[in-house]
Design a protein that fits this description.
The protein is of the alpha+beta class and 403 residues long. Helix content is 39%, strand content 17%. Helix 7 packs across helix 9, helix 11 packs across helix 13 and helix 12 packs across helix 13. The protein is globular.
Length: 403
């Protein structure tokens, strides 16, 4: 095996590990969907619903048309349907159930006030009586949302303007004393783990912290294909000191191999001897929270693509738009498209189109048009409407009109 890889080889290795280029034949069922989620190891959750909730998009980007209800069942369905659970993986995330024992050390640290937001840690230290009262309410009443427990009279304000009960539930959730039983809209419904997580999972022996962290790093390496130490650390948000210590142990044991990568200042790490595809055939829109691109520095290092989320940027300061999806075609990120689901009008609205190169390949724009039509169809929308007059949009317009 060579000691170094070209950047093109690194990209193909990463894309294959992330599940691109494997579009299944026929309808996508539960088995294929779960296999893809297990391959990624984590789906980041986000509340923005301008297009569709973000956690639904990664599977569509890789598998094509599937029923979102299948993912709902895996995450929040009846006990026998569940294969995922919610916790802090890469931010708020859906994770395969087999990862639960690997995160109990994080839950224990949270119960000690470590590894969680400072304000939440302070609440846990100071408001034990509220936490005990809320936990008892969950025991007695079953799955509850924060709103049904709130004692406050005034309407909630910004993100941290939570009621005491919401703070208590989030502390209990971080500490693993409650988990998410379901969603009402996008509101979490909290219940005891023994009423949500299968008994067989809860009964599994908990590895010690070091072993759990090593196994999480191996999962990160498998999902990323090739990754620097910060890349591996970021996937499940490990502490720097923990990650560096565990990574050294895995390299010494031969479980991870360091490689030089063209243009990278730091070494990349991979599992054993990688199998690098000759090419990757893919045409996909990527959620801003897709694991392929959520690490912005890594995205720039791999694809030469500088990507920043502008949702919270004032409108007059945005460069590319509000909810911008990169367009992955073959092995490059070739465009950015600002999209909305206009559900009342039954259409997918394109508010901006930005090309990374003035003259993309001859088949790139037709592929983008086809990808937008496919996205609209998956979302149950009747068509695509261009709401911009840029030169790339004008080139795209006649292509969207084709069947």
């Amino acid at each position: 095996m060579p000691d170094s890889l070209s950047l093109a080889e690194a990209r193909r290795l990463v894309l294959a590990a992330q599940g691109f280029g494997r579009t299944p034949r026929g309808a996508v069922g539960r088995r294929q969907l779960l296999s893809q989620v297990e391959r990624l190891g984590v789906l980041q959750l986000d509340s923005v619903n301008a297009l569709v909730r973000s956690h639904y998009l990664p599977a569509f980007s890789r598998l094509g048309h599937y029923a979102p209800e299948l993912l709902d069942q895996l995450a929040w369905g009846k006990p026998r349907q569940r294969a995922l659970f919610e916790y802090w993986g890469h931010e708020a995330s859906l994770l395969p159930l087999e990862i639960h024992p690997l995160l109990r050390w994080r839950m224990r640290r949270a119960a000690q006030g470590r590894g969680i937001y400072r304000q939440l840690a302070e609440f846990g230290a100071q408001r034990g009586e509220v936490i005990a009262r809320v936990l008892q309410a969950v025991r007695e009443q079953g799955a509850l949302g924060a709103g049904s427990l709130s004692s406050r009279q005034q309407r909630a304000g910004p993100w941290w303007d939570w009621s005491e009960e919401k703070h208590a539930l989030e502390w209990l959730f971080a500490a693993g004393e409650v988990t998410v039983a379901g969603r009402r809209g996008f509101e979490r419904l909290y219940d005891l783990p023994e009423r949500v997580i299968p008994a067989a999972i809860l009964a599994q022996a908990e590895p010690d912290e070091a072993e759990a962290q090593r196994r999480l790093l191996l999962r990160s390496a498998a999902a990323l294909g090739l990754a620097t130490e910060p890349d591996l650390r970021d996937y499940y948000r490990l502490d720097a000191a923990d990650c560096k210590a565990r990574l050294a142990e895995l390299v010494e044991a031969g479980a991870l191999r360091p490689l030089r990568v063209e243009g990278w200042k730091a070494p990349g790490y991979c599992l054993g001897e990688p199998s690098i595809p000759r090419r990757i055939e893919v045409s996909a829109r990527l959620s801003p929270f897709d694991s392929l691109i959520w690490a912005r520095e890594r995205t720039e290092r791999l694809f030469g693509f500088r990507y920043r989320l502008e949702i919270y940027t004032p409108a007059h300061k945005r460069v590319h738009g509000y909810y911008v999806l990169p367009f992955l075609y073959q092995e490059r990120l070739l465009a950015r498209v600002d999209l909305r689901s206009e559900r009342a009008q039954g259409r997918l609205a394109v508010h901006a189109v930005h090309l990374e190169a003035a003259s993309p390949s001859e088949d790139a724009l037709p592929a983008l048009a086809g990808a937008l039509r496919a996205l609209a169809q998956w979302l149950g929308l009747d068509g695509v409407a261009l709401h911009c007059r840029s030169q790339p949009a004008q080139r795209l317009r006649p292509l969207l009109a084709k069947p």
